[in-house]
Amino acid sequence: MLGGEATEPAWRTKPSRYLIATDDKMIPSLAQRTMSGRAGSTTVEVAGSHSIYVSPPAAVARLIKQAASAVAAPQERNSSQ
Question: What pTM value is reported for the model?
Fold first, then answer.
């Protein structure tokens, strides 16, 4: 059923976002910046723990909305032409 094969990582061709949790005690901020930079991600930094989806949920929601808007905007422009 799930026999598909990924031939190229999506982060190489698709825009990505990364929420850096500056209070994360598991993955230091510097490591998060390095990983997100390697992937070419747009980053946002917030004071939050490793459980970033729980510690500042409003910041997570904002980032998701920004990402969705960035993807939707080009499609909306193309459909109005």
Answer: 0.73
